[in-house]
Specification:
Layout (H helix, E strand, L loop, with lengths): L12 H6 L10 E8 L5 E3 L7 E4 L3 H11 L3 E6 L18 H12 L4 E6 L21 H18 L3 E4 L6 H11 L6 E8 L6 H7 L18 H13 L4 E5 L5 H10 L4 E5 L1 H12 L5 H15 L3 E4 L2 H16 L24
Parallel strand pairs: 1-3, 1-4, 1-10, 4-5, 5-6, 6-7, 7-8, 8-9, 9-10
Antiparallel strand pairs: 2-3
The structure holds zinc ion.
Length: about 350
């Protein structure tokens, strides 16, 4: 195991915010983005209205407004139409979407935290998160070696953090060792430590084109009732060098966000996943509630449970609403003030989603 180093968990000012407890705010939001090979692409994702797969040369179209409004972090996923193979070689090829996007974003937005998801399911022809044995089972150790290569490539491209989402055993230690050996000691690891096998990932598989061609992921993602497994996975990943840990999905697993926050000595993040996005959006469109109000309630719930930051597809809308609020408060005669807690927002003037 590598020696424990704390600096990379608070080297960036956004990471320093995450090291401290607090309520909803723009610097605690992370927007997941899907990037594709075709540089000019802007493909709507049918199961996630308002979200797109982006070509690298159009990323500014996606990000200029949210970054100007206060978005501080993104999480990148690759999505391929072809060129998949059993080993996911396109994950870290030099011309692959994610390394290209990392380089483009680091140049375009010097202050934006760029986190790269590390997994193989978007790049393997069988759609599983790992390399398979001849019997069709995931080969844990071969997969871990491959994931470490991918993580090093993303760090070399400039990612502030890599986020392994595969759920193989002991990949955090392997990734940490590979990053250190390659000279990327300051690249942080955000581990999807407690990732449950969930129907709430359905729209994501559409977006990332990562549905398994056969079988499912229940042999490596956690069973939904597996509280003890989640706690062991969280503690193991921290011991192996994770700088941040993630609980996923979000709202149905808030009890584990709270337990993780109470037990592990690193910031716990939560992921409001694709199914939660679609559920909230469609409910609002059906008139069940007002979207903005519901979003702020979910964010408050995440932070009440102990999350230090939330990965959400609603991030652009939320930062836009916060910016509107800030502008209103900065007008002559108002109270002014730089930080705008999102949970105080009642405005409906935010940018529409779709
Ligand atoms: Zn995967």
């Amino acid at each position: 195991m590598s020696r424990v180093e704390l600096h990379r968990g608070y080297g960036h000012e956004v990471f320093r915010v995450w090291q401290t407890a607090g309520g909803p705010s723009p610097d605690r939001l992370i927007w997941p983005l899907f990037v594709v090979e075709s540089p000019r692409a802007r493909e709507p994702i049918p199961s996630m209205p308002g979200q797109f797969r982006w070509g690298v040369s159009r990323l500014r179209e996606a990000l200029d407004k949210p970054v100007a409004a206060g978005l501080r972090a993104v999480l990148l996923f690759g999505s391929l139409q072809g060129g998949k193979d059993p080993f996911g070689r396109k994950a870290d090829a030099d011309d692959a979407p994610v390394p290209r996007a990392i380089r483009a974003l680091r140049t375009a937005y010097p202050d934006l935290v760029v986190i790269a998801d590390v997994c193989l399911c978007s790049y393997t022809d069988h759609g599983h998160c790992g390399i398979l044995t001849s019997e069709g089972h995931v080969d844990n150790d071969a997969t871990v070696r491959r994931l470490a290569e991918v993580a090093v490539a993303y760090a070399a491209a400039g990612a502030h953090a890599v986020a392994p989402s595969d759920m193989m055993d002991n990949r955090v230690a392997a990734i940490r060792a590979a990053l250190d050996a390659a000279g990327h000691r300051t690249t942080a690891i955000l581990s999807y430590a407690a990732k449950f096998a969930s129907c709430f990932y359905g729209p994501f598989r559409d977006a990332a084109r990562s549905a398994p061609a056969f079988g499912d992921r229940r042999a490596y993602q956690l069973p939904p009732g597996g509280r003890e497994l989640a706690l062991r996975a969280l503690e193991r990943d921290v011991n192996e060098g994770a700088d941040f840990v993630l609980v996923k999905p979000g709202l149905p697993y808030l009890d584990l966000v709270r337990e993780a926050a109470d037990r592990v000595p690193v910031p716990v993040l939560a992921y409001q996943v694709s199914g939660e996005y679609s559920m909230l959006l469609h409910a609002a469109r059906a008139g069940a509630f007002e979207l903005s109000t519901a979003l702020h309630e979910t964010l408050t719930a995440f932070h009440r449970a102990g999350a230090r930051a939330v990965i959400t597809y609603f991030a652009p809308q939320l930062v836009a609403e916060a910016a509107v609020r800030l502008a209103v408060r900065s007008e002559p005669g108002s109270h002014g003030g730089r930080r705008t807690p999102l949970n105080r927002l009642t405005t409906r003037r935010g940018r529409p989603l779709a």
